[in-house]
Amino acid sequence: MIIDLADEAAAPGDQVANVCVVGAGPAGISLALELARARPDWHILLVEAGGPDNASDREKDIYRVTPVGKSYSVLEISRRRKLGGTSAHWGGWSKPLDATDFESNPGWDVPAWPFGPEELAPWVPRALAWTDIEGDFFSVDPLRQRHEEKLLSLGAQSRLGEHLFRFSPPTRFGDRYRDDLAAQENLSCLLHANLYQLSRKGDRITGARVRSLDGASVHITADRFVLALGGMETTRYLLNLRGDEAADGDGIHSPHLGRYFADHYGLRPGVVLAREGLRYHRFGDDSGPVMPVLTFSASDIRQHGHHNCCMMLHARSEDDSLLASYGGSAALGFAGGGDYWHYRVQMIIEPRPNPASTLTLTEERCELGLRRMQLAWQPHPADFDSAYALFSTLGEELGRTGLGRSRLAKPDSAEVRQNVSGACHHLGTTRMAARSEDGVVDPDLKVYGTANLYVASSSVFPRYGYANPTLTIIALAARLARHLAGNGAGAAT
Ligand SMILES: Cc1cc2nc3c(=O)[nH]c(=O)nc-3n(C[C@H](O)[C@H](O)[C@H](O)COP(=O)(O)OP(=O)(O)OC[C@H]3O[C@@H](n4cnc5c(N)ncnc54)[C@H](O)[C@@H]3O)c2cc1C
Q1: What is the pLDDT of residue 228?
Q2: What is the reported pLDDT for 326?
Q3: Which end of the chain is more exposed for a tag (fewer CB within 10 A), N or C?
Q4: What's the CA-to-centroid distance between 429 and ligand 1, angstroms?
Q5: Cβ 130 under 6 angstroms from ligand 1
Q6: Measured from the CA of 91, which atom of ligand 1 is nearest?
Q7: pLDDT in tens, 87-123
């Protein structure tokens, strides 16, 4: 059932639920439907600030955040306030994290994931189904048989690895799952229902209040609450909740809350000269669109403590030809003859969790009465060292195998570092950890210091990799649904 609080005739009255999920983006919708299907004996409540249409300026103003220091140019466009959340904007790039993304980097001051990739693997097929991606494969190997000529043959000695992106159509969760939400008998979805208050007694959240901007207000009682408001807004509610708490020993005390804010960002370090027709960018396969990328090998990441970055190659015309300046492919000793193309290298950098990169509250309040935030985005200076090291490894590998040459076009400089902009992925500010000393939520996504408050969002990622986050967000949401539903219910198949 879907009830719109903006509709005066709706007047749903106060609500009682087993689980209340706040926020109907990819995380909230997949979690609420998974839970409702796993527990037909329960009532699941999904509350969403937006409606089916785009948010008004008044609604958007609730998201307003003040940037401090380095600009975060995607601040305004990186979040949507409507049914389906930011999936109304997303590009559909999808990939699970690599195995090394779960591992702690000995040079970093915080632990990575409290579990390995095997813990999330059973939930990835579920996430693929939610995002309408067919076939559960993320290895380049099966592609090599069909597209040998599009890929480099670097051999077993290579210090480079290859990984694969897949693509959702992209699924717009509001449009795609609206009918499912309406048809699910044990689920109620409230639209234009802005969460503005969580009440706490001891370590329990005892109730929540939501309201439309024009006044209709609903009190919610539930056994458990899940914040699925997106990375920034989830952090904001926890910061506000902490700010409102009485100093009675209970509550959210983690010093990590609001720290380690990260987003992926790109770098174009240079060009490569290599065989024609390479396809380290999006192309069509029988299985749908795919995109192989080049990375460090897993052993290089572990041995040298590299950040996990990836490279795409985009064919381009080049006036200042590398080939001409070397006197042609014969002079370079390239294998195989044929035409050689220039490729621009596009990189996605894995940001290192940086405690100095923060979301904090200001004194100003939005019309819901919640304190606003300021963002001090600070990519870690060491991020770039790994990016340039990866580009240089590519050059060495092309030289070693006789497959091409590389040229650095954008040397590392303060200007390059200052000008990076984000990819709209809000990571790290409610990080997950095995011990409360190291994070904000535990491995079951329950907020430390509370008995019944959970988070479903990329803000729980403790290490970020280079992969876009939504597939992992949904895998975590499906895993959380199983946890909340209890043993046996909704097990991964
Ligand atoms: C331009 C763009 C391109 C992107 N491309 C990709 C991509 O290719 N691949 C990828 O993996 N990711 C991509 N992303 C990121 C992706 O959109 C997010 O990772 C994903 O939407 C996060 O899902 P979520 O459910 O956690 O949060 P959201 O989608 O942000 O949903 C949060 C929901 O909470 C609701 N809400 C907020 N405040 C309240 C409140 N007070 N009360 C009730 N409800 C509230 C919001 O209205 C919203 O519906 C892209 C993002 C953008 C902006």
Answers
A1: 98
A2: 55
A3: C
A4: 15
A5: no
A6: 8
A7: 999 999 999 999 999 999 999 989 999 999 999 999 9
Q: Is the peptide bond before 170 cis (omega within 30 degrees of 0)?
A: yes
Residue of 181, 227, 229 with the most ligand 1 atoms within 8 Å of its CB, for mutation:
229
What is the distance in A from the centroid of ligand 1 to the CA of 155?
A: 40
Which one, of 152, 123, 124, lies nearest residue 138 by Cα? 124
Is the pLDDT reported for residue 244 higher than 70? no
Task: Give the chain's mean pLDDT.
Answer: 92
Token couple for 98: 């690599």
- Topology of 1-133+172-263+352-378+425-493 in CATH? FAD/NAD(P)-binding domain (3.50.50)
Domain ranges of the chain: 1-133+172-263+352-378+425-493, 138-167+265-349+380-419
